């Protein structure tokens, strides 16, 4: 009995050691691939940065941008430098390539029967895609919520903050649903939850705007009705006795 | 606005071309002219400058031989005609300057929309300042009331005066006269729109003249019909104009950090408004209420741009009743300077930044209305007080521009 247990433990230990021995070179290759590709990425990024600086890329981009455009390159770039953004994209692309190559190497050295990279690599790309989606969604949500907030305040809407929050959460919910769908987590539940949440937010916003804008809409309709009426009397307010307030001329 | 005529040159550098300009060619550009306007202007120019060789450029005008009054009509390049109308744009300056160089004009006068409403005094003053005077750039100062030219009074004039040291109450002019060397300078700096949806680029002639050490002169031009932009809202226009000025300030940072501006002349005692405050107070009450709403909603965004001390000042203003609603001039100056800095550093998206400035500008307008109470003298005093605050606070922007990360309470 004791001998059988000892034999079983020895075999298990042997198997673990075999796996470890076959796995370690893979880890080494993984590290070498990542380090090499990182070095290559740094080299390429430095070259790209020098070339773009020599070509005055930042100044050229800045001269083509307008203040009100949401797609201004510089606003999304670190330190507002498109050159820096491009060089960092090159660096991180090389690092990711190194990670992908490393995983393939681990898979090759790990076991002939293992399909680690066949499962891990596609899922890794999905994870990466989900992270990018979340990042972009957060940026877009922040941008849109600020745009709506400023626009609504300048339009003197009382519920500006509420509107801005609604837009922000609409985008965030959409982003989260897309990210989870991309990761293949949740399945139908996510679709249902997203539909309910999205519809709920849209309905809430519609009700809020509809109820809150009654005065605004009625004022707007009144204005459009009153506009074509021409007053032959030089004094526009003859009945009330009030003097008309002078119009502000901003320019 | 003050009604006192202003004729002294503002940059004291002498010019050597004064004598040679007398009797030389004058080019008058009328980018918005019709046949009726041309006829009126022709008569007025002939009586204002008898015996001078004058070229009048109008869109679609064929080149005619010189008539008995010494005036020749030439074609103004109408292909690049802009639709702004209420102010001269970079395209207007560029086309006029190119014509001036082509026809070797010693002085060029560009008149905007409704040019016939410009007074004879103003017309003669602008021409004489460049032809017979020492000025390289002559800009008109129209007779305006307390409700007119508010963007210029609150932002454009104080900023231009404090940073570039030249007094021009309307830095974005509707009419302007400039010398031949100023024309060459404008050709090198103005650019045409690149197409697409991009708005028409503006040029800031006062800043250009100041950087080139040219002489700027402001001419009292009396009353004039000031066309207003009709089809666009205030937020969009304010963002476009202020963004253009901020961008120009950013480009010329090395100049204005060295330049010094004199304190604007203002009466030692604030004039007492003669008009009733009741009418103004109704406007102020509405605007104060809107500012309260803006403060409640935008303080997070303002906090990214403004230091805590300024935010505290704005908080106090937002709680003040309409009768006491006022933005102190120094707080307004610092706030604008902080926005200039945030534009430069791209602290937040520039479109958002300029949108967040609109409620603050309207708060200044409310403050201006309350202070002036419909009285032109009181309004002029407030404008000069604002300009003086911008000059006094200039070290603040210079310091923050150089060391933006330094602690700033």
Describe it.
The complex is a heterodimer of chains A (251) and B (409). Chain A has 251 residues and is mainly α. Helices cover 77% and strands 0% of the residues of chain A. Chain A contains eight helices and no strands. Chain A has helices at residues 2-54, 57-64, 73-76, 82-110, 116-154, 160-182, 188-212, 214-226. In chain A, α4 packs antiparallel against α5, α5 runs antiparallel to α6 (160-182) and α6 packs antiparallel against α7. Chain B has two domains: 18-229, Spore Coat Polysaccharide Biosynthesis Protein SpsA, Chain A (Alpha-Beta Complex), CATH 3.90.550; 278-402, no CATH class. In chain B, α10 (278-305) runs antiparallel to α11 and α13 (350-372) packs across α14. The longest helix of chain B has 28 residues, at 278-305. Classes of the chains: A mainly alpha (251), B alpha/beta (409). Chain A binds chain B through residues 64, 66-70, 72, 74-75, 80, 143, 146-147, 149-154, 156, 158, 160-161, 164, 243, 245-251, and chain B through 86-87, 145, 147-152, 172, 194, 197-199, 226, 228-229, 234-241, 243, 279, 282-283, 290, 293-294, 296-298, 301, 346, 348-352, 354-356, 358-359, 365, 374.
């Amino acid at each position: 009995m004791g001998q059988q247990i000892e034999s079983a433990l020895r075999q298990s230990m042997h198997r673990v050691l075999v796996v470890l021995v076959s796995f370690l070179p893979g880890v080494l290759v993984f590290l070498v691939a990542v380090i090499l590709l990182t070095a290559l990425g740094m080299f390429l990024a430095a070259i790209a940065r020098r070339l773009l600086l020599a070509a005055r890329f930042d100044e050229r981009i800045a001269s083509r941008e307008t203040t009100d455009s949401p797609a201004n390159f510089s606003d999304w770039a670190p330190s507002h430098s498109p050159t820096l953004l491009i060089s960092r994209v090159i660096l991180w692309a090389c690092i990711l390539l190194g990670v992908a190559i490393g995983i393939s190497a681990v898979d090759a050295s790990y076991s002939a029967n293992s399909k680690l990279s066949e499962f891990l690599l596609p899922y890794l790309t999905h994870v990466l895609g989900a992270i990018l989606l979340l990042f972009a969604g957060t940026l877009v949500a922040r941008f849109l919520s600020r745009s709506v907030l400023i626009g609504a305040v300048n339009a003197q809407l009382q519920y500006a903050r509420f509107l801005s929050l609604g837009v922000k959460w609409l985008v965030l919910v959409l982003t989260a649903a897309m990210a989870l769908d991309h990761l293949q987590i949740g399945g139908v539940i996510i679709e249902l939850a997203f539909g309910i949440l999205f519809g709920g937010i849209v309905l809430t916003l519609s009700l809020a705007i509809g109820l809150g804008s009654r005065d605004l809409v009625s004022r707007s309709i009144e204005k459009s009705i009153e506009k074509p009426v021409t007053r032959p009397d030089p004094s526009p307010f003859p009945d009330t006795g009030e003097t008309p307030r002078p119009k502000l001329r901003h320019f | 606005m003050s009604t006192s005529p202003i004729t002294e040159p503002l940059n004291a550098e002498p010019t050597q071309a004064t004598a040679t300009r007398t009797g030389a060619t004058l080019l008058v550009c009328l980018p918005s002219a019709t046949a009726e306007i041309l006829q009126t202007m022709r008569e007025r120019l002939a009586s204002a400058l008898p015996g001078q060789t004058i070229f009048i450029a109008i869109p679609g005008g064929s080149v005619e031989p010189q008539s008995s009054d010494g005036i020749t009509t030439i074609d103004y390049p109408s292909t690049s005609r802009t639709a702004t109308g209420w102010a001269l744009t970079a395209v207007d300056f560029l086309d006029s300057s190119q014509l001036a160089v082509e026809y070797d004009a010693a002085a060029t006068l560009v008149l905007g929309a409704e040019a016939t409403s410009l007074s004879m005094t103003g017309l003669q003053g602008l021409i004489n300042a460049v032809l017979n005077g020492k000025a390289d750039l002559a800009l008109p100062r129209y007779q305006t009331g307390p409700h007119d030219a508010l963007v210029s009074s609150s932002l454009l004039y104080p900023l231009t005066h404090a940073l570039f040291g030249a007094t021009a109450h309307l830095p974005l002019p509707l009419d302007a006269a400039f010398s031949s060397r100023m024309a060459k300078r404008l050709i090198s700096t103005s650019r045409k729109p690149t197409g697409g949806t991009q708005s028409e680029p503006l040029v800031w002639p006062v800043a250009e003249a100041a950087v080139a050490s040219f002489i700027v002169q402001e001419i009292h031009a009396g009353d004039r019909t000031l066309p207003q932009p009709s089809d666009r809202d205030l937020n969009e226009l304010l963002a476009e104009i202020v963004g253009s000025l901020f961008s120009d300030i950013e480009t010329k940072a090395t100049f204005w950090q060295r330049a010094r501006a004199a304190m604007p002349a203002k009466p030692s005692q604030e004039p007492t408004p003669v008009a009733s405050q009741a009418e103004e107070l109704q406007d102020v009450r509405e605007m104060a209420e809107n500012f309260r709403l803006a403060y409640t909603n935008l303080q997070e965004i303002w906090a990214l741009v403004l230091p805590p001390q300024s935010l505290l000042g704005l908080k106090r203003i937002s709680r003040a009743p309409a009768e006491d609603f006022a933005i102190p001039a120094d707080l307004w100056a610092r706030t604008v300077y902080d926005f200039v800095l945030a534009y430069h550093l791209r602290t937040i998206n520039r479109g958002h930044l300029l949108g967040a400035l609109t409620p603050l500008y309207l708060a200044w307008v409310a403050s201006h209305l309350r202070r002036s109470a419909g009285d032109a003298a009181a309004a002029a005093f407030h404008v000069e007080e604002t300009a003086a605050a911008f000059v006094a606070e200039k070290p603040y922007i210079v310091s923050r521009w150089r060391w933006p990360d330094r602690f700033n309470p």
